[in-house]
Amino acid sequence: MGIGTACVTVGVAVLAVWAREGALAALPESRIARALPVFELAAGVLVTAIALSLLGRAL
After folding, report:
1. Model's pTM, two decimal places?
2. 20 to 30 A Cα–Cα from 10, which one of 4, 16, 18, 33?
3. What is the C-alpha separation between 26 and 17, in angstroms, rounded?
4. What are the phi and psi torsion angles at 28 (to 5°)?
5. Are the CB atoms for 21 and 27 separated by under 8 Å?
């Protein structure tokens, strides 16, 4: 069961990277294309903050 979960996780990650590369390639060289990584970083920081908050409550 663990191997199957790992295979699905890796497959989804590969598809996500492929889709992101294609989406960025379709955008013209504009402000949105340059600002997208900043939004992704902000979303990652938000998810990390929420996860740490939940971890702190669990401990």
Report:
1. 0.54
2. 33
3. 14
4. -70, 165
5. no
